[in-house]
Amino acid sequence: MKTLNKITALSILFSGLLLSCSEVEKQTEEDNLLTINNQSVNEDNALTLLKTNCFTCHNPNLEIEKRIAPPWFKVRQHYYDDETSKEDFIAAISNFINNPTEENSIMPGAVRNFGLMPKMSFKEGDLKIIASYLYDNDISSDEWYEKWEAFEKKSALIPIEINYEDLGRNIANETKANLGKNLMAAVKEKGAAGAVDFCNIRAIPITDSMSVVLNAKVKRVSDKPRNSINAANEDELEYIENWKKAKEQGEKYPPKVVELNNKMVGYYPIETNEMCMKCHGIPEKQINTKTLANIKKLYPNDKATGYSENEIRGIFVVVMDKK
Length: 323
Prior knowledge:
Blueprint: H1 2-31, E1 33-36, E2 39-42, H2 43-53, H3 72-79, H4 86-98, H5 108-114, H6 126-136, H7 142-155, H8 164-213, E3 217-221, H9 234-248, E4 256-260, E5 263-271, H10 277-280, H11 289-298, E6 312-321
Helix pairs in contact: 2-6, 4-6, 8-11
């Protein structure tokens, strides 16, 4: 009888330990979730989105000497205070990123020092996840940096389930961010006319180098190319036209992913913003005389002017290995 009582007691104790461990594990999982509109979002997903879409320019590394954009914690400081609601914070961040203009910016010093950021393409909901994470986390703290380093190590070991639309979008965004940061540096150093020189010499090599780094073939094409190398083919022209029509009618036209020659090919729109007007806007009005002369000199057959803000300028074409 005593033996039975001991076994029963041990069973209860062991069950209690299991329950306790289970509760701790459950709590850890809950701590790793964000809540957006009463829906839980994994924190790792938010960090992945930040890494892929933001940190190419807004690098959290404090030791970087030559920055091409303010670090995210500085951006957060301008948008966040104790009286800012999460809803207002998300709306303000989203408003600027969706339409990066001087009027929409609350950081005139950053615009003055770094120029306007390029217009990025986000999957619906992703921008809200990023902004929500930034609201909830002080990314200037030592605690956050420890979390970030742990995430970097962990993400390098975990195999990723492939969604080709998302993968292609991430590749396009990283390429756009890399081109954008180099372009902004050129504008800052030499003005818009110098940016034309940059595009002439380095835009295609940078795009090609990103293809190597990201293990995919990336190109930019347009129906109104500046460089004939970037002229869209028949299929690409159709996608561009569809995006233009959808935008004119206020409709959403999602990225396109198709299988071609045992490869997955993604098509992602490139939209103009205020920064683009210095080289792609209306000649003599938005494009100054010096810049226009440089364009004509380097691109005698240029077709890439006369744009307004928020127009489809072309598309990224991302060719990915099928896995």
